[in-house]
Amino acid sequence: MDDVERAVRTYLDHLTVEKGLAANTLTSYRRDLRRYLQFLRRRDVTTLAAVSEATVTEFLVHLREGDADLGHPPLSSTSAARTVVAVRGFHKFAVADGLATLDPAAAVKPPAAAKRLPKALPLSDVEAILDAAGAPGTALALRDRALLEVLYGTGARISEAVGLDVDDLDWGESGVDGTVLLRGKGGKERLVPIGSYAREAIEAYLVRARGDLVASGSAGGGTTGGALFLNARGGRLSRQSAWAVLVRTAERAGVTRDVSPHTLRHSFATHLLDGGADVRVVQELLGHASVTTTQVYTLVTVDNLREVFATAHPRARE
C-alpha cells in the first residue's frame, strides 16, 4: 500500500466516522477515489507530494475521455464534476490533517453541468390537452379546464396557481383586460395579463361549478378560505392533485410526451418568444429575478429556427 492509498483510506474513515455520511454517499466517494488511485498508479504517482495541479487537471480530462483499457466509459460533465469534488475533498483533508503541505486540487474547478433546455410542447399538444380538460362538463371538469388554462395562459408555477384566491382576479372595468395576481418565490408578487380563453374558462367554473364545490365543503364542515381552485371536498386544491389533473388530462388527450405543470410554463415562455415577444417581457411574466434565467428559452427558439431553416430553405442542405 503506497502513501496515497493510505491517505485515501484515512479520508474515507474520516467521512464514515466523523462526518457520518450516508451509505450511498460513501459508496460514491469510494468508487470515485478508487478511480483516482488507478489513474495515479498508472502514472507511477505514489506520494501526495508527487501530485501536482497538472496531475489533477489531467485526471479531469481522463474522466471526460474515458479509459477503454480499464472499461471506464467517458463521463458526463455532471458525473465528472462529482468525481472531481471527491478528489478536491480528499486533497483538502490531506492538508488539514498534516498528510500533505500543498493542495494540488484547489484550483481545479469541476466542469459546469450542461444546460438542460426546457422542454416545451407543440401548440397542437397544448390545445389537445386544454380541449380534453372540460369535456365531461362536470364541476370538476370545469375546474380542471380553468386550472390548465391558467397554467398555460399565465405561465404560473403550479404553487402559484393553486395558491390563487378569487380576490386575486381582476377583469378590469370593461371585463376584457383582465389580470391575475401571482405570488412567486420569496413572496414576490406580480400582475400577469390573462387572455380571453383563460378568462372564459374561469368564468364558466365560477358560475357553474365552484358553488357546488363550496357546498360540498360546507356539508362536510370544510372551509374554502376564498381559494379559487377547490377539490371535491371544498378545500383548496393541492399541488399534487393539480399535477394529477394535468397528467390524467394529457393521457385522455392522447399526448404521449412527458407532461408536468412546468411543461406548460415552458410552453408558455417558448410560444411567446416564437411569436416575437421580447425576452425581458417574458422575464417579467415568468417572475424571473434575472433575465439570464429567461434566456435559456431563447436557446430553444434558436433550435426551432435551425430546424425550420434546414427543412424549408432550398440551399440549407445538399
List the helices and strands and how they pair.
Layout: H1 3-19, H2 23-42, H3 53-65, H4 77-96, H5 123-133, H6 139-154, H7 158-162, E1 169-170, E2 178-183, E3 189-194, H8 196-208, H9 210-219, H10 239-253, H11 261-274, H12 279-286, H13 291-294, H14 296-312
Antiparallel strand pairs: 1-2, 2-3
Strand order of the largest sheet: 1-2-3
Beta-strand segment tally: 3
Strand content: under 5%
- The low-pLDDT segments are none
Overall geometric form: elongated
Class by alpha and beta content: mainly alpha
- CATH level-1 class of the largest domain: Mainly Alpha
Helices and strands, in order, run as HHHHHHHEEEHHHHHHH
CATH topology of the largest domain: hpI Integrase, Chain A
Report the span from N to C terminus. Answer: 60 Å
CATH superfamily of the largest domain: Intergrase catalytic core
| The CATH architecture of the largest domain | Orthogonal Bundle
Rg result: 27 Å
Q: What is the mean predicted local confidence, pLDDT?
A: 87
By oligomeric state, this entry counts as single chain
- The number of domains is 2
Helix content: 55-70%
**What is the number of helices?**
14
Keywords:
three-stranded antiparallel beta sheet, 2 domains, single chain, DNA polymerase, domain 1, 14 helices, elongated, 318 residues, hpI Integrase, Chain A, mainly alpha
Describe the structure.
Helix content is 58%, strand content 4%. The radius of gyration is 27 Å and the shape is elongated. Strands 1-2-3 form a three-stranded antiparallel beta sheet. The chain has helices spanning 3-19, 23-42, 53-65, 77-96, 123-133, 139-154, 158-162, 196-208, 210-219, 239-253, 261-274, 279-286, 291-294, 296-312; strands at 169-170, 178-183, 189-194. It folds into two domains: 3-96, Orthogonal Bundle (DNA polymerase, domain 1); 123-312, Orthogonal Bundle (hpI Integrase, Chain A). The termini are far apart. It has 14 helices and three strands. With 318 residues, the chain is mainly alpha-helical. Helix 2 (23-42) crosses helix 4 (77-96).
